[in-house]
Amino acid sequence: MTTGFQTETIVALSSGALPAGIAVVRISGPAAREAITALAGPLPPPRRAVLRRIRDAAGTEIDRGLVLFFEGPATVTGEDLAELHLHGGRAVVSACLDALTSLPGVRLAEAGEYTRRAFENGRIDLTEAEGLADLLAAETEAQHRQALAQAGGSLRALYEGWMRQLVEARAMLEASLDFADEGDVGEDATDAVAPTLAGLAAAMEAHLAGAHRGEILRDGFRVAIIGAPNVGKSSLLNALADRDVAIVSDIPGTTRDVIEVSLDLAGIRVRFADTAGLRETTDAIEAIGIGRAEAAAESADLVLLLQPADAGMIHVKPDERRGATLVVRTKIDLAPGVRFGSGTLGVSTVTGEGMGALLDEIARSAREAAGDPAGVVPARARHREIVADALRLLAEARMAPAAELQAEALRQVTDRLGLLTGRVGVEDLLDVIFSAFCIGK
Ligand SMILES: Nc1nc2c(c(=O)[nH]1)N(C=O)[C@@H](CNc1ccc(C(=O)N[C@@H](CCC(=O)O)C(=O)O)cc1)CN2
Ligand SMILES: Nc1nc2c(ncn2[C@@H]2O[C@H](COP(=O)(O)OP(=O)(O)OP(=O)(O)O)[C@@H](O)[C@H]2O)c(=O)[nH]1
Ligand SMILES: [Mg+2]
């Protein structure tokens, strides 16, 4: 485990932009006690808010505010930690930070440094730190729920559970080597660990199967709006966004770049991409735009293929490279009375007709693709890639012909999984070896 004993004490404004009703200044590190006594008088009892006058070194009053002290190591950072709850004025906060940083061993914190210390002091692992970052960035309900679960240790518990099983399997294999002639350890250790390893591989596969859901929850459900020039793609994007994001004109070929808009649909982030109209072209720039449109359609979770209602229904051949496709007939105000087959929606951005049904359908697809936000799924490409690597290494390890080789191959799997949580150590292995077998006697 990384030990991050710090001699420097860090201070920062931990609450939001000033001015604000209240501002919270946090102080973490060995000088947190002295900082409180220097600015606010005797150290209050731990975890009790007390109202104090806060003064600088010259005795000039900065504010009257609440003071809290938390004694390390059972704190969020793992160090002595103090909080000053001030009035949220710029001059108040800047005077307070000046007074704090003029104390010996106290400096301003860098971005993410409290969380970094929490990690270095073993309070949280990397997945919890990532969850915390996502929690601060969460905008939709699904992002919020996923981040809260991850910050609370959902991924950590899963990955540490796998690591524990691997370490136990290694301990069993290694014990069979070191103490092969003793009676209390099974002869055929590779057979003994085989069911555990099979179960682990299945668990990793199941976890990977949820990777796309996790990334949709975190990064958003991607919808590409495509179709021939002038069918009303940009008009639809503007109607969805409820503002003039993209240029609309009756000149075919108006849009060239991909234009993105994010919406919160039923608690899920949905990212719409308006694209260049698809057609044969000799214009080099337009051709680049059409290439980008195709790429957007290929990486989308849902493709809205737009066709005007006042033109005849164009038969669309299914394109396997694209995501699931929903045909949307546009400009239905120009074709009153036209009926469409089931599975086709009609909209008008002029009258707004059909927009509600279209949004409902997109929200339904997004919910279906995202699944349960509280489910334990890989949230980032980092998780997916490491688990996939570990699974490949595990498959190799399972084929190892002898206990010695298998133990070594499993060490590579644990090392790889250790990148997920950021904590891997031989201590774990030693603990298991010594506690699970009556070796020392
Ligand atoms: N004012 C304030 N509000 C805040 C925080 C904070 O640091 N300050 N938090 C900042 O993240 C969050 C609350 N999270 C916290 C998580 C753990 C502990 C803590 O001290 N845990 C110890 C002791 C638990 C106990 O004794 O009840 C532990 O886990 O060992 C404190 C806050 C959100 N709200
Ligand atoms: N009557 C009617 N006209 C519409 C509707 N939607 C779009 N239009 C018109 O159709 C023309 C083309 O609209 P755009 O949204 O620019 O079409 P586009 O598909 O983005 O076109 P490109 O960017 O050139 O591929 C414009 O003149 C719009 O005003 C609609 O629902 N009803
Ligand atoms: Mg356009």
Automatic annotation (TrEMBL):
K(+) binds at N230, S249, I251, T254. Its cofactor is K(+). GO terms for cellular component: cytoplasm. Residues 220-367 form the TrmE-type G domain. It is an enzyme of class 3 (hydrolase). InterPro entries: G_TrmE, GTP-bd, GTP-bd_TrmE_N, GTPase_MnmE, MnmE_dom2, MnmE_helical, P-loop_NTPase, Small_GTP-bd. Keywords: Cytoplasm, GTP-binding, Hydrolase, Magnesium, Metal-binding, Nucleotide-binding, Potassium, tRNA processing. The keyword Transcription regulation does not apply. Signal peptide: none annotated. (6S)-5-formyl-5,6,7,8-tetrahydrofolate binds at R26, E83, R123, K441. Mg(2+) binds at S234, T255. It is found in: Cytoplasm. PROSITE patterns: G_TRME (PS51709). One of its GO terms (biological process) is tRNA wobble uridine modification. GTP binds at residues 230-235, 249-255, 274-277. CDD domains: trmE, TrmE_N. Binds 1 potassium ion per subunit. Exhibits a very high intrinsic GTPase hydrolysis rate. Involved in the addition of a carboxymethylaminomethyl (cmnm) group at the wobble position (U34) of certain tRNAs, forming tRNA-cmnm(5)s(2)U34. NCBIfam families: PRK05291.1-3 (NF003661), small_GTP (TIGR00231). Belongs to the TRAFAC class TrmE-Era-EngA-EngB-Septin-like GTPase superfamily. TrmE GTPase family. This is tRNA modification GTPase MnmE. It comes from Aureimonas glaciei. The gene is mnmE.
